[in-house]
Specification:
Elements: H1 2-14, E1 20-25, E2 31-34, E3 37-40, H2 59-79, E4 83-89, E5 95-101, E6 107-109, H3 110-115, E7 119-120, E8 123-129, H4 140-151, E9 159-162, H5 169-187, H6 195-200, E10 205-208, E11 211-214
Parallel strand pairs: 1-8, 1-9
Antiparallel strand pairs: 2-3, 2-6, 4-5, 7-8, 10-11
Helix pairs in contact: 4-5
Length: 226
């Protein structure tokens, strides 16, 4: 969790005039923080691979699973006298079990971690969860969620994106977010949108600088986006 505070501090220092940071988490598996370190579920035979059980899960459903995972960890703490069995990775890539001593106050989930940092001395941290499957292109619903995030922020608001390694999903989402901002920056210079634009716009309703664009609800996931 110290890493989150460090990133927020760096972003605030680089953007002193901005009073708001948007933070988007793309991980698609339940995560629980134990003594400030993140842990997630893994299958015993594939401890270094993401579980595929959560493909396509919604953010609200994922947060419910995280709350249940937190409750399971706390139940184990009570059963084993303030200890929980976790697994860690050694320098050579081996996965070994470790008993971690922890109090119930030091067991939390991502939603609570970010809510505790929502208001800081330097401004506001706005948190979004957009679960995207690793090593796969984002679904249309994922794109819609990212578009909604951009529409709810100004063009100068810093956006932080994180996944597990910061390599695949974070990179792709960063490109998508930049493209959306560039597209909006171009079209905000235009006058009132034409009926053709209103008909072809994506599946959302929003208002940007007084100009409203409304979706065609008949759009399907695989329809080409213009």
């Amino acid at each position: 969790m110290e890493a989150i505070d460090e990133v927020v501090g760096i972003v605030n220092e680089a953007n002193p005039s901005e009073r708001r940071i948007v933070w988007i988490t793309l991980r698609e598996e339940p995560i629980v923080y134990i003594n400030g370190a993140p842990y997630c579920l893994r299958r015993e035979a594939f401890s270094l691979r993401n579980m595929k059980d959560y493909g396509g899960i919604s953010a609200s459903r994922l947060e419910v699973l995280e709350d249940r995972l937190k409750e399971d960890v706390i139940a184990e703490l009570r059963e084993f006298g303030g200890r929980v069995l976790v697994h860690t990775e050694t320098a050579d890539g081996s996965v070994i079990p470790v008993w971690e001593e922890v109090t119930e106050d030091n067991v939390t989930v991502m939603k609570d971690v970010m809510n505790a940092r929502q208001r800081t001395d330097d401004g506001e941290v706005k948190y979004y969860r957009v679960p995207i499957t690793a090593e796969r292109p984002p679904d249309f619903a994922d794109l819609t969620d990212l578009i909604d995030v951009v529409l709810s922020t100004s063009t100068t608001t810093p956006i932080v994106v994180n996944c597990q390694l910061g390599r695949g999903r974070s990179t792709l989402a960063s490109v998508i977010l930049l493209l959306i901002r560039q597209w909006l920056g171009h079209h905000q210079l235009l006058s009132t949108p034409s009926p053709r634009f209103l008909k072809r716009s994506m599946s959302m309703v929003s208002n940007v600088d007084g100009f409203e664009h409304k979706s065609n609800k008949g759009r399907h996931s695989y329809t080409i986006i213009n």
